[in-house]
Amino acid sequence: MNTKYVFVTGGVASSLGKGIIAASLAKLLQARGLRVTIQKFDPYINIDPGTLNPYEHGECYVTEDGAETDLDLGHYERFLGIHTSKANNVTTGKIYHTVITREREGAYLGKTVQIVPHITDEIKRRMLLLGKTGEYDVIITEVGGTVGDMESQPFVEAMRQLQWEMPEEDFLSIHLTLIPFLKAAQELKTKPTQHSVQELQALGVHPDIIVCRTEKELTPELRHKIALFCNVKPGHVIQSIDAWSIYQVPLNMEAERLDRMVVDKLGISDLPEPDLTALKAFLERLKHPGRDVDIALVGKYVELQDAYKSIQESFVHAGAAAHCRVRVHTVHAEKLHEGNAAELLGGMKGILVAPGFGERGLEGKILAVKYAREHGIPFFGICLGMQMAVVEFARNVLGYRDAASTEVDPKTLHPVIDLMEDQKSTTVKGGTMRLGAYKCRLAEGSLARRIYGTEMISERHRHRYEFNDTYRGELEAAGLKVSGVNPDTGLVEIIELPAHPFFIATQFHPEYKSTPEHPQPLFVAFVKAALEKDGAGN
Ligand code: GLN
Question: 511 catalytic, yes or no?
Fold first, then answer.
C-alpha cells in the first residue's frame, strides 16, 4: 500500500480546533490498525516557536529529539500515544531558511529563486518526508492558519500540486469551518463556509470532506445545502459539535463516520472497525470522577489557558487515574505576596509551581514554595519551579538571604542555581537550550524511586540553568534530598524534602509525556497526595 496523505485546512476563523480534529481522525485510523502520524505546517517566519512568548502562541511543546514545537504536537502525542519529532513541525521560517541556504551554496546557480517552484518544492519535500521513512501508512498534515491568509498560500499551493501529482486514492483533503449561530435570527449560517470553500477551490484545492464546527446540531437539509454549494459529495459534510472533553471528539467523529469516509476515499476500506476500548474506559473515569480536589497552579502566564496546556492535560489524565477531578486554580505569581498567600493558597490541597523564564513573578513563586513547605501542602515544582524550590530552601532554611538563580541576579553571593557550563559560550537564543530527552537515575529509597518504580527514567528538558553542585552538600545536610541525577553528566534532576508529606521538584518537564492511557506517574502521585491531604480534613 502506498503511504496515504490527508491534509486538514481551516476556514472562516482560527481556533476552531483543527489540531483536535486531525488528532481525532488519526486516533480513529490508528484504532483500525494503521500506523499514523501527524505533522503541522505553521505559516509564521520564526524557525520554531521556541523564541515566542507564551502570550503569543501558547505553550511551547518539546519533543523527545529536542524540537521546540507548536502545542498541537502535544495533542497529537496525547491522542496517539506516539512520539513526534523535529520533522513533525515545519514553519515558513524553516522552509525559507533551507531555500536561502541552498541558494547561497550555489545550488540554484543561474536560476531565479521563486515561491513557485522553489519554495513550494521545499514545502512538498517536507510534506512527504515522514512518508518516505516507511514507518507510516497515513500522514496527516495540519496546515496552520486560515485559508485566504496571505501567509498560508504557499502551503495551499503545495497541496494543490500534490493533489495533482498523486494517485487520487493517496490524497485526501479535509476543510474545517465554522457554522455560526445567529441568536437574533435563531439560525445557523452557512455563507461564511461557502465563501471559505470557494476561496480554497479558487486556489485549486478541492476538499473531499467538510467538517463544520457548530454549537447546534446541523439538520440534514443544512448539510445537503452545504454539500451542494461547496461541491462535495452529499454525506461528506459532517458536524463537530462542542464537546464536553477534547477526548470525546474521536468518538463524535466516529459517530459522524469521518474515518469511514476517509478509508473509503483512500481505497483501504477493508480495515477492522476502530477499537477504542482504552479511550472509552478513560472517558468513563473522566465522566464519573467521584470527588473534586483543588490544586493551585502558580505561574505568570495564567491569563492564557494555553500557556500551560500540557500541565493542564496532565492533571486531567492524573485525575482520571486517581478517580477524582482536579480543579486547577491558576494563581498569578505576580499578585502573590505575604499578605494574601493564606487567602490564595490556604484552601489548596496541592501547589504546583510552573516553568518559566525571567524575573517577573519570581518572588511570588518563591513565596508559594515557602507556603507549601511550611504548611505541609503537597508540592510539585517543574523546571523554574524546581529552581525556585532550591532558592527558597537556601534562603529560608540555610539562611542565605540573597540566594538566587543567576538568570535574574548574576551578582548574587549565593548562586544556588547557575548557568550550565555548556551554556556559558552561547549567545544565540533560538534552539540552544538543553532540550529533549535525557536519562535520570533515581536514588534508592527516594520518593521519586517509589513513584516511578524503576531506577532509570527518561524525561524531556528545556532550560539553560541548573542546580549548582557547589551547594549540594550544604543543602543535603539541611534536609533537601537530591533524588535524581543524570547518569552521564551528574546534573541534578530531582530534589525532594523527605521531612515533608509530599515535596518533589524536577528540572525536567514531566508534563510533556503524560497521555490519557499512560498518565505521568509524578502527576498521579501528586494528585493522590492532594487527595490524602483533603481526606485528612486540612
Ligand atoms: N528559566 C529557567 C532556565 O532556563 C527555567 C526554564 C523552564 O522553566 N523551562 O533554566
Answer: yes
